[in-house]
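FORM 12-B: Structure-to-Sequence Request
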């Protein structure tokens, strides 16, 4: 056999061997991939949304609004990366996201999902009129999907006695943030005791509240003896400590 023919056959043999090795490597990579279940993807989405929306209480769940396409992942720990901006908590979103394994993109998806955030809220036992101080005796807790409510549910403590209604609330109504406001500890025009402190020295004098004041907050006041406007920190319903 001529030398040229031998070299040609040898070259063809090397090429076939290289192709066989490449195909074997591809088949091995394919065989190591595994399908991603809907439950696994659901868990990734729920954890990511809880972190994104900074949800620390209650239970957040997601449901897909259409069938998922087949998803195959290579070995490794999957993670999720949003490729579209997700706004504030919403009961329905249509996100685009990537599923990554060891930092590499393994799949890209865009699918509508329905979100539920179940947590405890305050519900009224009976109607509450406007300008009424909240009382725990007239309220009870219920677990509801807060994303289905027309606004933000109030999550404060009615025992603190610092909140009052700003509008009427019907029986069975959820306490919403827009229906409440802080209850002033001191009202504008009230006569109060102002305290001026300087080290161990403390002097008290009567003052007039120039605006509503709330516990722990600051307010404007005027000395009852001199027309001097001061600022003070509200301690309780009768005492304000002057701040400089």
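FORM 12-B RESPONSE
SEQUENCE OUT:
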């Amino acid at each position: 056999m001529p030398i040229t023919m031998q070299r040609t056959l040898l070259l063809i043999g090397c090429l076939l061997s290289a192709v066989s090795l490449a195909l074997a490597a591809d088949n091995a990579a394919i065989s190591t991939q595994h399908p991603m279940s809907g439950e696994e993807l659901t868990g990734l989405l729920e954890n990511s949304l809880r972190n994104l929306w900074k949800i620390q209480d209650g239970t957040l769940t997601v449901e897909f609004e259409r069938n998922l396409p087949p998803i195959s992942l290579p070995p490794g720990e999957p993670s999720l990366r949003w490729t579209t901006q997700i706004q504030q908590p919403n009961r329905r979103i249509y996100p685009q996201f990537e599923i990554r394994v060891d930092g590499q993109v393994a799949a890209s998806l865009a699918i509508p999902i329905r979100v539920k955030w179940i947590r405890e809220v305050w519900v009224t036992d009976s109607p509450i009129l406007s300008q009424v101080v909240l009382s725990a005796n007239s309220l009870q807790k219920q677990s509801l999907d807060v994303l289905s409510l027309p606004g933000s549910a109030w999550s404060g403590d009615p025992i603190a006695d610092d909140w009052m209604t700003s509008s009427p609330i019907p029986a069975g109504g959820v306490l919403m943030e827009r229906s409440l406001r802080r209850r002033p500890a001191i009202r504008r025009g009230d006569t109060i005791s102002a305290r001026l402190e300087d080290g161990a020295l403390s002097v008290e004098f009567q003052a007039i509240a120039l605006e509503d004041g709330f516990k722990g907050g600051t307010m404007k006041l005027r000395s009852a003896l001199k027309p001097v406007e001061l600022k003070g920190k509200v301690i309780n319903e009768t005492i304000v400590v002057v701040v400089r």
